[in-house]
Amino acid sequence: MDPALMAERCPHSPQQGTGWLEGWRLTFGGEDIGWEGPLATVVEDVAERVFVVLYEISPLDERALDRWDGVTLGYFRKTRVRVETLDGDVAAWLYVLNAYEGGLPSERYLAMVADAAEKAGAPDDYVACLRNRPSASPRS
């Protein structure tokens, strides 16, 4: 979600806006494959919604992003979803973790997620909720 990281990883793919993924919940999972504990992902949950950033991904950048996010290793899969934007609903691809849900993200990783949401323009209350989520102390 971080605009600077996306510009670095996907230099040919401009940001197209933001919106809400209704009926999904932000969670963490796959602790055994994460570099610092569980990874951010989403799961379906009719009572929740997740702030998202939309990008127009070029084919070249899509291949790079698939490698970066571990799609080629089976860690993530892509699924088609509808995102609610101020201009109406749009269809988008979403990366979803292929692992069990559970575990606490590290303090540092959760801060990175919250910082990225803030930089992308997420509402203040959404960012505050991210910053106040439980997290794990750094591993020794």
Helix content: 25-40%
Structural class by SSE content: alpha+beta
The H-and-E topology, N to C, reads as HEEHEEHH
Give the strand content: 35-45%
The overall strand count is 4
Quick recap:
This protein is of the alpha+beta class and 140 residues long. It has four helices and four strands; from the N terminus they run H-E-E-H-E-E-H-H. The strands form two sheets. The chain has a two-stranded antiparallel sheet with strand order 1-2. The protein has a two-stranded antiparallel sheet with strand order 3-4.
Structure commentary:
27% of the residues lie in helices and 37% in strands. The protein contains four helices and four strands. The protein has a two-stranded antiparallel ribbon with strand order 1-2. With 140 residues, the protein is an alpha+beta fold. The protein has helices spanning 3-9, 59-68, 107-119, 124-131; strands at residues 15-29, 39-55, 76-85, 88-97. Helix 3 (107-119) runs antiparallel to helix 4 (124-131).
What topology does this entry show?
Elements: H1 3-9, E1 15-29, E2 39-55, H2 59-68, E3 76-85, E4 88-97, H3 107-119, H4 124-131
Antiparallel strand pairs: 1-2, 3-4
Helix pairs in contact: 3-4
